[in-house]
Design a protein that fits this description.
Strand content: 15-25%
Shape: globular
Helix content: 25-40%
Radius of gyration: 28 Å
CATH architecture of one domain: Alpha-Beta Horseshoe
CATH superfamily of one domain: Ribonuclease Inhibitor
CATH class of one domain: Alpha Beta
Number of strands: 23
Structural class: alpha/beta
C-alpha cells in the first residue's frame, strides 16, 4: 500500500502565479497566513471544489466578504477554515458564504476559529439547508452545551425527514469540567457496526489488548484512531508494538502534541525496541511524525474513496541518497519546522528521545523550515541532528548577512541538500545608506564592507560543498546585489528549478551572468518575479531563454516591468521552447499588438497548458482603471485570433495588481 511516504510534496511557491497554476490543474487551494483570501480568489480561473484556509490569524472582515462574493467559490464541495480568528466578526459574511455554497457543500470545517454561541446560532438556518453535507468539524470553539444541542437539531431535522428517521445518531464529546463542547458527526449515515464494535471493545482496555493478536490488519487503523481520540493509553502502547504495517504515520493525526497520548505511543515503541525478537504481527519500520499522511487514516476510517489492499507493502524511504551507515531497525521521520513556536518543545523531546536510543532507531529530518525563531534555539537543534539527512532548507526570516554566514557552517554539512530557499536576507545595517551618508567615516565604511564580504565568502564556501542541489529559490536577496555571478559559480550540479523574486536592484550584469552559467542550462522551471527589467537591454533575457529552451517547462516573468521591445525580442526563442507547459507574463506593460504576437508565436507549443497574459495597455484609463467596454472588444479580437490559429485554447488576461484591494482580476479568453 503506497502511503504518505510515497506522495510527492505539493508546495506552493507563495506567489499569485503558482496559485493560478494550482487552481488550473487541481481545483484545490490551500491558503496560509501569508496569502490572504481576497488576493487568492482573484486568481481563480475555474470553480473550486475544495478550499482550505489555515492559520490565518490576521483574516479581516472584508476578507470573508470577498470569499462569498467570489463566483468561483460557489460550487465548493469542501470548505475548511482552521485556526482563523473569527471571534470579533459579525456573523453575516460567514452566513452569506454558507448560503452561496449550500447546494454543493459536502464537508465543512470550522475548527479552532474562536467562534462563540451567537455566531454559530446565526448560521444554523442555512446549515440546515446544506442537504449534501456529510461531515462537520467545529471542534475547539467556545460553544455552550445549549448551542451544541441546537446545532444537532438543525443538522438532523431536514435529513431525518428525507431519511424517514426521528433522530439521527451522532458523536458528541464534552470536555471534562467544562461546558465547551466538541462535535464531530456524519449526518448521512449512523455509526457503522464496526465503529460501535470498536467503542465497545475499548471500554475494557485489557480485553482490547488481548484481542490485538487476532485482530485483522484492516481493523488496526480504525481502532487506533478510536483509541487515540478516547485517550486509551494502554491500548495505544500495545498497538504500537503490534502495528501490522511498515509505516505508522502519527504526523497525520489531528492535534498531535507532546502529551500523555503521544508519550504512551513512544513507550510502546520503547518496549518494542527492547525485544530481541519482534512480535509476529509487527512490521513497523518507519515512524513518520511529519505533518502529512492523513489520507492513510481517512482511507481506513471510511472518509476516503480510495480502495487499496491492506497487505501491499509500504515503500520505506532511505534517509538520503548516499547514507554510509546501514538502515536502523526503525526509522523516525521528523520535519524541523521552526515556523511554529509551540512545536519547539515537541521537536526537542523527539530529538532527545531518538538520541537516547541511537543504534536501535535512526532519526531522519529531511526538511528544515525556519521563520521567527531565535538563532540560539535553532543552533541547539542543529547541533544534535544528523545534518546530511536534510534535503530541503527554507529560510524565511529577516536575517542579516553575518547570521546567514553563521548558519552556512551548518548548511555545508547538509551534503545531500537538494532544495535551498533564501528569503529576506539583508546586508549589514547601514550598508545601503552609505552613499547618502557622506559624513560617515571612511574607516567605518571599510570595516562594514570587509565584514560583509567575509560573511558572503563564508556562505559561498559552504555552498561549494552541496553536491546534490537541484533547486534554488531566492526572495528579496539584496545581499546578492552585483554578486550573483559568485553565487552561481559555486553550483556543483545543474539546477532543475531557479526562482528570483522581489529583487528590484538586480543589475544588467547579473542577468548576463545567468545565461553564461553552465549549471542553469538544464532548467525545467525559471521564475523571475517582481524584478525591475524596464531599462535592461533585451539580449541577456533572450540569451537566457536560448540556453534553457530545450528543457524549459515552466516560465514565469510576472511583474518585471517589461515593455514591448523586450518581449518582442524573445518571441523567436520562445517559440522554440517545445517542452513549455506554463507561461505567465502578467503585470507587465504590453500593448495589444505585442500580445497578439505572443499568441501567434506560442501557438505551436503543443505542451502548453496554462497561459496568463497582461490586460493590454489600451484597456486602461489614465488613472489606471480598466475600461470594461474596451476590454470586451479586446477579448473578442483575441478570440478571433485564437479561432484563426485553429487550435482549441484557453488564455487568461490579468489586470495590474491593485494595492488597495489586494487582488488582480482575470478574464478568460477561449476558443
Amino acid at each position: 500500500m503506497a502511503l504518505e511516504g510515497e506522495l510527492g510534496e505539493k508546495k506552493q511557491e507563495g506567489t499569485e502565479c503558482l496559485l493560478k497554476m494550482q487552481n488550473q490543474r487541481g481545483a484545490h487551494i490551500l491558503c496560509q497566513d501569508m496569502l490572504k483570501p481576497p488576493k487568492m480568489s482573484g486568481c481563480l480561473q475555474t470553480p473550486l471544489e475544495k478550499l482550505t484556509i489555515t492559520h490565518c490569524q490576521r483574516l479581516t472582515h472584508s476578507d470573508l466578504t470577498h470569499l462569498f462574493q467570489c463566483p468561483n467559490l460557489r460550487q465548493l464541495k469542501s470548505l475548511r477554515l482552521y485556526c482563523a480568528s473569527l471571534a470579533d466578526f459579525s456573523p453575516e459574511p460567514l452566513q452569506a458564504l454558507l448560503e452561496a455554497v449550500a447546494p454543493t457543500l459536502q464537508v465543512l470545517g470550522l475548527d479552532k476559529c474562536a467562534m462563540v454561541d451567537f455566531q454559530v446560532e446565526a448560521i444554523l438556518p442555512v446549515l440546515s439547508r446544506c442537504h449534501q453535507l456529510t461531515f462537520i468539524n467545529i471542534t475547539e470553539n467556545d460553544l455552550s452545551l445549549a448551542t451544541v444541542g441546537k446545532l444537532l437539531r438543525h443538522t438532523a431535522e431536514d435529513e431525518a425527514q428525507r431519511l424517514g428517521l426521528k433522530t439521527l445518531p451522532c458523536s458528541l464529546v464534552v470536555s471534562t469540567g467544562l461546558l465547551w463542547s466538541t462535535l464531530r458527526m456524519s449526518i448521512k449515515t449512523p455509526p457503522t457496526l464496526l465503529h460501535q464494535a470498536g467503542e465497545s471493545l475499548l471500554r475494557d482496555q485489557a480485553l482490547a489488548i488481548a484481542a490485538l493478536e487476532h485482530l485483522p490488519a484492516e481493523l488496526f487503523p480504525q481502532l487506533f484512531i478510536q483509541a487515540y481520540r478516547s485517550r486509551r493509553l494502554q491500548v495505544l502502547k500495545a498497538m504500537s508494538q503490534a502495528w501490522p504495517f511498515t509505516v505508522l504515520p502519527l504526523g497525520g493525526l489531528p492535534d498531535l502534541s507532546l502529551d500523555e497520548v503521544f508519550k504512551a505511543i513512544l513507550d510502546g515503541l520503547d518496549l518494542l525496541l527492547a525485544q530481541e525478537v519482534r512480535p509476529r504481527r509487527c512490521k513497523l519500520r518507519v515512524l513518520d511524525l511529519r505533518d502529512r499522511g492523513s489520507d492513510f487514516w481517512r482511507m481506513w476510517f471510511g472518509c476516503s474513496t480510495q480502495k487499496r489492499s491492506p497487505m501491499v507493502p509500504v515503500a520505506v524511504h532511505r534517509s538520503s541518497p548516499n547514507m554510509e551507515h546501514p538502515l536502523a531497525p526503525v526509522e523516525v521521520f521528523l520535519d524541523l519546522n521552526f515556523n511554529e513556536w509551540d512545536r519547539y518543545s515537541f521537536l526537542l523531546y523527539v530529538i532527545q528521545w531518538a538520541k537516547q536510543r541511537e543504534g536501535l532507531l535512526h532519526l531522519c529530518c529531511k526538511t528544515l523550515r525556519i521563520a521567527a525563531v531565535p538563532f540560539q534555539r535553532l543552533g541547539k537543534v542543529l547541533d544534535v541532528v544528523q545534518l546530511d539527512c536534510i534535503q530541503a532548507v527554507e529560510l524565511n526570516c529577516i536575517w542579516d548577512l553575518p547570521t546567514l554566514g553563521t548558519f552556512a557552517l551548518y548548511l555545508g554539512q547538509m551534503r545531500n541538500l537538494q532544495k535551498l530557499s533564501l528569503s529576506h536576507i539583508h546586508m549589514l545595517a547601514g550598508e545601503e545608506d552609505n552613499e547618502e551618508e557622506e559624513e560617515e567615516e571612511e574607516q567605518g565604511e571599510e570595516e562594514w564592507e570587509r565584514e560583509e564580504q567575509q560573511c558572503f565568502h563564508q556562505l559561498l564556501s559552504q555552498i561549494l560543498r552541496l553536491q546534490h542541489l537541484r533547486e534554488l529559490h531566492m526572495d528579496s536577496p539584496c545581499f546578492l546585489l552585483g554578486r550573483l555571478d559568485q553565487m552561481l559559480s559555486c553550483l556543483q550540479t545543474p539546477l532543475d528549478r531557479l526562482s528570483i523574486k522581489n529583487c528590484r536592484h538586480l543589475m544588467h550584469s547579473d542577468l548576463t551572468h545567468l545565461f553564461q552559467c553552465p549549471k542553469i542550462r538544464q532548467l525545467k522551471t525559471l521564475y523571475l518575479f517582481a524584478l525591475s527589467l524596464k531599462h535592461f537591454k533585451p539580449e541577456p533575457l533572450r540569451a537566457l531563454l536560448e540556453a534553457v529552451a530545450p528543457t524549459l517547462q515552466d516560465l514565469g516573468l510576472d511583474n518585471c516591468e517589461m515593455v514591448d521591445s523586450q518581449v518582442e525580442a524573445m518571441l523567436a526563442v520562445l517559440s522554440r521552447c517545445h517542452q513549455l507547459r506554463f507561461f505567465t507574463i502578467t503585470g507587465n506593460d504590453l500593448s495589444l499588438t505585442t500580445l497578439e504576437k505572443l499568441l501567434r508565436h506560442t501557438a505551436g507549443l503543443s505542451s502548453l497548458e496554462l497561459e496568463l497574459y497582461p490586460v493590454p495597455l489600451e484597456c486602461y484609463t489614465t488613472q489606471g482603471t480598466v475600461k470594461k467596454d474596451r476590454l470586451a472588444l479586446v477579448r473578442a479580437e483575441l478570440t478571433g485570433i485564437l479561432r484563426e490559429l485553429g487550435k482549441p485554447r484557453i488564455i487568461s488576461l490579468g489586470t495590474k495588481y491593485c494595492q488597495q484591494r489586494g487582488i488582480s482580476k482575470f478574464y478568460k479568453v477561449e476558443f
